[in-house]
Give the backbone structure.
Amino acid sequence: MRIAQSETRDKFPLSTKKVLKKTVMGTLVWAILLLIIWGVLAFALSSSTETGSWFGIATIGIFGLLFLIILIVYLYQRWYYAVYFYDLTPDYIVIKKGPITPREITIPYERVQDVYVDQDLLDRIFGLYDVHLSSATISSGMEAHIDGVEKPAADGLRAMLLQTVNERISKKRVPVPPQVQQ
Amino acid sequence: MANNEIINYIKSELAKGESKETIVNSLSQAGWQNNDVQEAFNSLSSPVSPSSISPQHTAEIVNEKNYPITKLWIFKAPIIIIVISVVALLFGYYFPYLVIALPIYLIANPLIRANFHYSTDEKYFTVRQGVFSKKQRNLPYGVIQNVFVKQDVFDRIFGIASLRIENASQAGGGQKVRWWNKGYGSKSNAYGQQEGVGSSGNKVNIPGLKKNSAEALKAILLQRMKENPIEELGL
């Protein structure tokens, strides 16, 4: 499907590994749960031989369910990845996410309070970073982040954000004439 | 064409004691045309009349008559209640309190909508609302922190969106919670509670706008925010 494009996304793209990571994160709990159930069943039914075929059906059922869950989560994450839009325009930052319930936040550079980069455990395994920025409101901290970028993109985004914010809040700043939109 | 941004810059530099030549130099180095700079200086020495500000650079004043909350929004909570009740009935569950809520929403929503006014004035974003007790809130553009545009599932189906503006106050706007706008600000709760209209706490929420109205209003607000930065007390 068509990926939401922007100049910034071309320069600092989201990593495709993000889809994998999100899929793993979403299905890990289910996988563990179902495997435990299957293990318990296997142990409980290993003693009696008549229920052999019944156990076979149960196995197929459990693994089929697991496969279905993984497939659905993977497709949703693919969709999420495609619709993910972020752009560092000359005046403000726009981040828009969510395939089913789109949410878009616009923060002017002058309002950016901090830029924060982190990795959780799965991120470290896949080599991904999350770039968060926030203004003075709590909800901006929750909504405004670009997650699933690789190191060069994360560093580039952070550098570009900090530099632009610095220029904007600098008192020596000379306003630039409005650029002609191409 | 005079531009608010350049005028603000000149004013603050003059207040700091910079000479006119320094200012002109920095501006031309930044890429401004000479006649723009001259015109900006002229407009400072003579009182600024609205006609000297080019409409291309200054956002126009709009209010809820230009970009109204759609009538569809009135029916959003009722429709959701009906759908949920029907689905629940199919499974044999009956939610009586939902059905009671239905006529209340049908009466309250049109009243709320009729009494909700907003306006993008020159210096402030003004919101007036209130069915029984009226309140008015003025937000200077310089303090607006973020602009949100979001749609939930119902919104997407019907092509409407919510616009939310936040400033940095904790519980500004004389925060009070009433039963009909006891929204939690974010999601339209599945049990029919709707998101609050207008100002509450640190935000102003305008739900039920048509999608391109929301985008247009957002563009106007961003333009206003750009033209009205917070004046630094020259340090």
User: Anything to note?
Assistant: Chain A touches chain B through 27 residues (CB under 8 Å). The longest strand of chain A covers residues 92-97.
